[in-house]
Design a protein that fits this description.
The structure is a homodimer of 331-residue chains.
Chain A lengths: L5 H30 L7 E3 L6 E3 H17 L4 E4 H6 L12 E8 L1 H6 L5 E8 L2 E9 L4 E6 L4 E3 L3 E2 L20 E3 L13 H13 L14 E3 L4 H10 L4 E5 L3 H14 L2 E3 L21 E5 L10 H13 L13
Chain lengths: 331, 331
């Protein structure tokens, strides 16, 4: 059991923000090189068209790792690139202070120079994500949080963005009036009842008119797919997205985002409906579960607390989505 | 037939950019008011949850309209809000110099304070969109073009972003390796073979593994849905998206975007596959057709010109998508 003083935590938080900004600048510098016609050799292909890794990705991870090792040699480091090269898909986070880092989330966006890419730095103690830093350099958006110190956009705007006169409650007929964020992901196998078809059936239920889809129609306000799990979570913390539902991510994709969203007052639980969805106690997500359902921060309405509104929304989503099949044996 | 001198056109272009910036600032100011807790009374609901109009929308249109009337009293003005209040769904653009304006595209995003909203100002002469200005104030991105003067991001970066050593050709197996942008839209009727189901079937074909979906699997690199037709077109002009396919937009949603994309070297044609998709001559889109397929600017490869690569991609998309049913009688 590690106990960090408030002062120590504050120092780590400042370090993480600075590190995020520097790592993000590396990502942006490499984009500038490509625009200047000098970056083509940086791209190399991995196993399929949806899985491109760039040299930049590895360079940024090396940089982040060495900076952390230098400043906090006793902390554990877990990065996407180093993890991906290993044999194990085990969940490696324990109670030790652990940095969980994705040097580049939204890789496909990055290779196409679409703005929705970022670096994601999470710091976890006793299994709890306590610090999160997400920096999207092309749009110069820095999301950050530290337990007890709030969640912030660019260190000046508190998240969620709308706080006055109070944080809006969840809509009374949620998911109606909600923006629903979801991703098509990399698993595109055309297997009957496979993950892709289960996802699309779930998207359709959420989108269709109320009364449609055998009563499962949710008539959400909008369906959004950005191609970055990390930024999806950041936008839920912001209040821009109401619901994010996804399977197949890994802990480095979501650690920082979960820290920020929880600190902002959001709820994160599992994507897969439990056997008793209407009555089960709603528990916080397991970081390594690969199955995530996030609900934005919500204030009270006249008839329920913010938490009650969030839990009601969770159950309404569970009623409309299929189970997804993602294990830790690979994507 | 109107002939504008190069000098006149340049003046109109400068006016349009300045107008776009000022209109976008009005949108952003209203967001700031909401964040400060003073904007709740600005929101009023229209006919359904996916169709919210804000007072801001109308205020911005009034502002843009009056500025244009003052400076160019002889020009025709066509705006989303004024049009929507009228009885006619006819296509009203003729050879006269016409301003085609959407004061707020991405209305759902705007109400949720998700960054993907913008003002869109197109200027059309002799049926040709000759000037386009799109300003997304929350992310401070200004896209602009004028026939013969190039297309630009923030007036300093030429579009598409990657020009050196040459604009990338379309991928040899497009839509594989392409980012495919598409929108779920407002028509969520759960009608068998209705627009929503035809769209989703098309999305699935584009996404599925090569060989899947009875040979229609396109294995695109990513599927994106932002909730703004206008910004979709801007990102295609940028090169960030390779393909955008959509039905149901109106001319004010796309006029500026088409101007910018065409000036950047992109191709815009119809979303609906013609009877002879493999051999038909590919024609430029009709602005009022409500059916749009956009392909990013492309350079030559060793075996084909940029235009040939774009046309090959159009035919590959047509092979995978369903006909959509949008008339001019309403959405």
């Amino acid at each position: 059991m590690t106990n960090l003083s408030s002062e120590e935590l504050g120092e780590i938080y400042a370090f993480a923000i600075d590190l995020g900004r520097r790592a993000g600048k590396m990502l942006l510098d490499a984009v500038e090189l490509r625009i200047d016609g000098m970056g083509e050799d940086l791209l190399s292909e991995k196993d399929n068209a949806v899985d491109i890794v760039t040299q930049t990705d590895e360079d940024v991870e090396s940089f982040v790792k060495s900076e952390i090792r230098r400043r906090y040699p006793s902390h554990v480091f877990l990065g996407e690139e180093t993890y991906a090269k290993g044999q194990s898909r085990d969940y490696l986070i324990n109670e030790e202070p652990t940095w969980c880092v994705d040097p580049l989330d939204g890789t496909v966006n990055y290779t196409h120079i679409f703005s929705q890419f970022c670096v994601s730095i999470g710091f976890i103690v006793n299994h709890q994500p306590v610090i999160g830093v997400i920096y999207a350099p092309f749009q110069n958006q820095l999301f950050s949080s530290c337990t007890g110190r709030g969640a912030w956009l660019n260190e000046k705007r508190k998240l969620p963005l709308i706080q006055k006169p109070s944080i809006p409650p969840m809509p009374p007929n949620a998911p109606n009036k909600c923006i629903f964020s979801c991703e098509w992901g990399k698993d595109r196998r055309d297997t009957p009842d496979g993950n892709m078809h289960r996802k699309v059936e779930s998207f359709l239920n959420m989108a269709a008119e109320v009364g449609g889809r055998d009563g499962k129609g949710g008539m959400v306000h909008g369906v959004r797919s950005l191609g970055s799990a990390t930024l999806d979570l950041a936008y839920v913390a912001m209040g821009a997205f109401d619901i994010w539902w996804e399977g197949g991510c890994w802990e480095w994709d979501v650690a920082a985002g979960i820290a920020i969203l929880q600190e902002a007052g959001g709820l994160v639980t599992t994507a897969n409906p439990p056997p008793d969805p209407e009555t089960v106690q709603i528990e916080d997500v397991r970081l390594g579960s690969r199955l995530y359902l996030a609900i934005r921060p919500a204030g009270p309405s006249g008839t329920e607390t913010g938490r009650e509104g969030q839990e009601r929304t969770v159950r309404e989503v569970w009623r409309r989505v299929r189970h997804l099949d993602y294990s830790r044996l690979g994507a």
